[in-house]
Write a structure and sequence with these properties.
The structure holds 2 protein chains of 2 kinds.
Chain A: H1 28-31, H2 49-60, H3 92-95, H4 107-124, E1 128-130, H5 136-153, E2 160-164, H6 170-177, E3 181-185, H7 195-201, E4 206-212, H8 224-233, E5 237-241, H9 254-257, E6 261-263, H10 266-269, E7 284-286, E8 298-302, E9 305-309, H11 326-362, E10 378-381, H12 392-401, E11 408-409, E12 418-421, H13 429-448, H14 450-454, H15 467-472, H16 478-483
Parallel strand pairs in A: 2-3, 2-4, 4-5, 5-6
Antiparallel strand pairs in A: 1-7, 6-7, 8-9, 10-12, 11-12
Helix pairs in contact in A: 4-11, 5-6, 11-13
Chain B: H1 8-18, H2 23-26, H3 48-61, E1 69-70, H4 83-89, H5 92-95, H6 107-124, E2 128-129, H7 136-151, E3 155-159, H8 164-174, E4 180-184, E5 186-187, E6 190-191, H9 193-199, E7 204-210, H10 221-229, E8 235-239, E9 258-262, E10 278-282, E11 295-299, E12 305-309, H11 316-319, H12 332-370, E13 375-376, E14 385-389, H13 394-403, E15 406-407, E16 410-411, E17 421-424, H14 431-445
Parallel strand pairs in B: 1-15, 3-4, 3-7, 7-8, 8-9
Antiparallel strand pairs in B: 2-10, 5-6, 9-10, 11-12, 13-14, 14-17, 16-17
Classes of the chains: A alpha/beta, B alpha/beta.
Chain lengths: 484, 446
């Protein structure tokens, strides 16, 4: 059933709030010149607290979420996030502190940031860490900005950034907003960077190379050190998209692979729930030669006092109004304190075992074109179902009927009808077995009763939604609709 | 191990089924010298009880604003948040969901974003809003990037009264496109209109004016707009405090092209400055140039109303290097807080918050300016924040007042506003607190 919008539930004169008395006798119209004051108040709804709460609970019920069920979205690392982390929401010592407070009144917060910087540096094998970026793409922005400034500072005008054709969309987008030309390398037969192709495009115009490792096929780039050597031979910088860091925690470090910059997806890897799209955290680690380029400030410590250090010789400046998403940092801090070295290693182990296990379970119906060195996720190909008129989209929608979230679909682009599946370490064998059973059942359905898939989903709050209609009859706010 | 379900026995079965003897065998092919053999140098793991204790201790080391009487602002404000806001954003149905890519099982998220977009349009008087940017600073930067792409001009005029941190973020963001950035000089708390006119040449791509500006002063948008739009290409970008739009004419009324700002005042805690969220609203003609996610209404196969992510051809996952922005993850949960906050406060409540903050700020301003030696720094109309010049160094006031239980404000000397203290007042401050604060200031400078 469609739920009315909150605007349609508004009843004139209804109130959902209380405020203290103002106690000061004054009137806005006496303070300001008349022309400045708004005459047509915004049409905000008028509802009671119960109306509001019930409305949002009603619509919340239409969401799939990790506590409800499996969420195998490839590249998104939808792991279960421990509830202890939610303590950050109720500790006023974290929520009710202002970024401009004197430093001696935020020593606890600075300690969290300081220790987290160091822990992430250790985990990634990088020389220093900035926690300021608030999302993966924001980390990429910061990293590519460092690449830009590194060359500029050396008096060089570099024009190109290289990346494989399997890269996340944020990689080319981030390069382009910096004015770089994007050079996409066709992947080789194993789904990895084609070294020969790389050599052909390598010249002194190359500013850097962006690589996800394991890559978006879930395949480990075994030639990563050779790639790094090649890029470094022209003084390019190696950027690692850290979206898939979960696969190698405690075992393999970006710094050791020759990367100069890596971003951490704090919300994926270090357990902040995704909030329906954010907030996240996108801190970055850099190698020794780039430490002075990091955004300011960095938290430092002297004589047991933590302080904000704004002193970085070539700093790119700032990428956020204050220090980044502090509450996300606290969650990562708690998570790392509970895991330690052994816990991190077990994350990687279980993520990789779960993914390989699920892949093997599905292979009979869902071939995986690139399956050598599969790590924490894999990309299956749904092309064979086309002969029954079934697309990957239909398989995804049918999964919703069975109570599972669908995998990431149609990405990476180099696998046709792609189904990108990442089970994560927190899921149990039973869940994977159930999911595999349903996937195999759907394969049978596709052959025997394809209409079931094409008409899916049916057991969801709404059936398949018309995306073309949404664009054709654009309705993105009630305001727009009214004025049309 | 914490948060792992499978047992050793299950892992063994799984490895067998995969056809390998051990986890290490799955890593075969990865150069051996890349695999760490010794443990990472990290603290030994803590139990849930131990970590709870530790985190509580760390939180207690901070002095929070509810233990003090706080006049801190400069972009982040201590407004009241009704309990129901945190109740709703604490529902796992919302906070443990991913980006709503599978619309049929994400209607909760999609509908609240649609409502959020509508609320932002109502406040700003604009046609369309996206689903959020990272914060006010990056929203400003992205608005400028939009303009630079839109009209291909290279000159950017920015009010010198923009938040100094925003200035840094903007420069980091747009410098790689090599624009000519000119900061419009200010005079008495507002931009200098005459000097601005001189800079408003045909090659201007965009003009960014914060109002209220960093000093809390409301700019004369009505007078500025025609000067900008004499140049047919230039875009007018206004950055604003959404609460101020309950009192003052919205930018939409004055043909502003892009309205952005920091949304923290709408139901988010101060959080040491993050998470925050930036709002981003545009005119009808700029909708397809907007960065970030947008939700639209549509119908399902049964003709039932529903919501989807729409106009995705602007976004990085579809357009890659041709996208309008590289943004992917945004600050969705903070916009849920904003939505619930605006809905609960409603038409009357939100106005009352804005009015009380303003009336109390003006009350305090009048009283402080009467203290011997204190001077107003500017004379323009201000919202809930103002700058004063105290007879002693602002740093000294802040430090001494802290010992008396006050966060007296922000010392903006370091940003070039010599010897000025920036004081913000929200509806949470009582008359008694304001009077006592003034008494203490008087004593301090006597």
């Amino acid at each position: 059933m469609a739920t009315k919008t909150i605007f349609e539930k508004s009843i004139s004169g209804r109130k959902g709030y209380t405020l203290p008395q103002c106690e000061i006798d004054n009137n806005i119209s006496e303070i300001f010149p008349n022309g400045l004051l708004r005459k047509d108040p915004p049409r905000l709804p008028e509802v009671s607290e119960l109306d509001a709460v019930r409305h949002y609970i009603e619509i919340s019920d239409k969401n799939h979420f990790i506590e409800k069920g499996f969420y195998p979205l490839g590249s998104c690392t939808m792991k279960y996030n421990p509830k202890i982390n939610d303590i950050v929401n109720v500790l006023t010592g974290f929520t009710d502190i202002h970024p401009m407070q004197p430093e001696d009144t935020i020593q606890g917060a600075l300690q969290v940031m300081y220790e987290l910087q160091n822990e992430l540096a250790e985990i990634s094998g990088m020389a220093a860490v900035s926690l300021q970026p608030v999302a993966g793409a924001h980390g990429e922005f910061t990293g590519v900005n460092i690449i830009y400034n590194y060359h500029k500072n050396k008096g060089q005008h570099r024009t190109k950034i290289i990346m494989p054709d399997s890269s996340h969309g944020t990689n080319p987008a981030t390069s382009a907003v910096h004015g770089f030309e994007v050079v996409e390398l066709k992947s080789n037969k194993e789904g990895k960077v084609d070294i020969q192709a790389l050599k052909e495009v390598l010249d002194n115009d190359v500013a850097g190379f962006m690589l996800t490792n394991p890559n978006t096929l879930g395949v480990f780039e075994t030639d990563v050190k050779e790639i790094a050597d090649l890029i470094h031979s022209v003084d390019g910088l190696m950027y690692m998209d850290g979206a898939n860091l979960n696969a190698m925690l405690g075992y393999i470090r970006p710094g050791d692979m020759g990367f100069d910059i890596v971003h951490f997806n704090m919300h994926k890897t270090f357990s902040t729930p995704h909030g329906g799209g954010g907030p996240g955290g996108g801190g970055i680690g850099v190698s020794e030669k780039l430490v002075e380029y990091l955004p300011v400030p960095i938290v430092k410590k002297k004589d047991d006092i933590y302080y904000l250090d704004y002193d970085a010789r070539y700093s790119i400046g700032k990428v956020h109004s204050y220090f980044g998403n502090f509450l996300v940092m606290v969650r990562a801090y708690i998570y790392l304190k509970m895991l330690g070295d052994k816990g991190l290693k077990s994350v990687a182990e279980n993520a990789v075992i779960n993914s390989n296990y699920l892949m093997v379970k599905l292979l009979s119906e869902y071939p995986v074109p690139y399956k050598k060195n599969i790590m924490h996720e894999f990309v299956a190909c749904g092309e064979k179902f086309k002969e029954y008129g079934v697309k990957t989209l239909d398989i995804a929608k049918r999964l919703l009927d069975y109570g599972f979230h669908a995998p990431t679909i149609y990405f990476p682009l180099i696998v046709h009808e792609a189904l990108m599946i990442e089970p994560t370490e927190t899921e149990s064998k039973e869940t994977l077995d159930n999911f595999a059973e349903v996937m195999l059942k759907i394969a049978q359905e596709a052959k025997e009763n394809p209409e079931l898939l094409k008409e899916a989903p049916q057991n969801t709050p709404v059936t398949r939604l018309d995306e073309t209609n949404a664009i054709r009859n654009l309705d993105i706010s009630r305001n727009l609709r009214r004025k049309k | 191990m914490p948060f792992i379900s499978n047992t050793d026995e299950q892992r063994k079965q799984m490895l067998e089924e995969i056809g390998v003897a051990s986890f290490e065998e799955l890593l075969k092919g990865i150069p051996e010298d890349l695999i760490i053999t010794k443990p990472l140098n990290l603290d030994k793991p803590l139990s849930e009880f131990e970590v709870t204790k530790k985190v509580n201790e760390l939180a207690a080391k901070n002095t929070n604003t509810s233990e003090m009487v706080s006049f801190l602002g400069a972009g982040i404000y201590d407004h009241f948040i009704p309990a129901a806001v945190n109740y709703v954003i604490g529902r796992p149905e919302f906070y443990s969901a991913y980006t709503p890519y599978q619309a049929e099982v994400s209607q909760g998220t999609l509908q609240f974003i649609y409502e959020y977009q509508t609320l932002i349009c109502e406040l700003t008087g604009m046609y369309a809003s996206n689903a959020s940017m990272y914060d006010g600073a990056t929203a400003c930067a992205e608005a400028l990037l939009l303009a630079l792409r839109h009209n291909k001009n290279k000159k950017v005029l920015i009010s010198s009264l923009v938040h100094p941190h925003y200035k840094q973020v903007i420069e980091t963001y747009i410098n790689p496109l090599e624009p000519e950035i000119v900061y419009i000089p200010h005079n008495n708390g507002r931009i200098d209109i005459e000097k601005f006119k001189q800079e408003m040449t045909a090659d201007v791509s965009a003009v960014l004016i914060p109002s209220p500006n960093f000093l809390g002063v409301i700019e004369n948008i009505e007078a500025i707009e025609p000067i900008i739009h004499e140049n047919k290409k230039a875009l007018f970008i206004v950055s604003t405090d959404p609460l101020s739009l309950m009192l003052f004419n919205p930018p939409g009324k004055y043909n502003v092209d892009v309205v952005v700002g920091e949304g923290q005042v709408l139901g988010s805690s101060q959080n040491l400055g993050g998470p925050l969220f930036g709002f981003f609203a545009v005119t009808q003609k700029l909708i397809r140039k907007m960065p970030g996610r947008i939700v639209g209404a549509t119908v399902d196969t049964n003709g039932q109303k529903g919501y989807v992510l729409t106009l995705q051809a602007r976004e990085q996952h579809i357009r890659r290097d041709k996208a309008t922005s590289n943004i992917c993850t945004n600050e969705s949960l903070c916009t849920l807080a904003a939505t619930v906050y605006m809905v609960l406060m409603g038409k009357q409540g939100l106005r009352e918050v804005a009015e009380q903050s303003t009336i109390k700020a003006h009350y305090l301003y009048d009283k402080i300016c009467k203290i011997d030696g204190f001077e107003a720094a500017n004379s323009g109309p201000f919202f809930k924040e103002f700058a004063v010049k105290p007879p002693i160094a602002p740093a000294e006031i802040i430090s001494k007042m802290k010992d008396k239980g006050y966060f007296a404000g922000v010392d903006i000397s370091k940003y070039g506003y010599e010897n000025q203290l920036l004081i913000a007042v929200t509806e949470k401050r009582t008359r008694q607190e304001l009077d006592a604060f003034v008494d203490e200031l008087e004593k301090l400078v006597k």
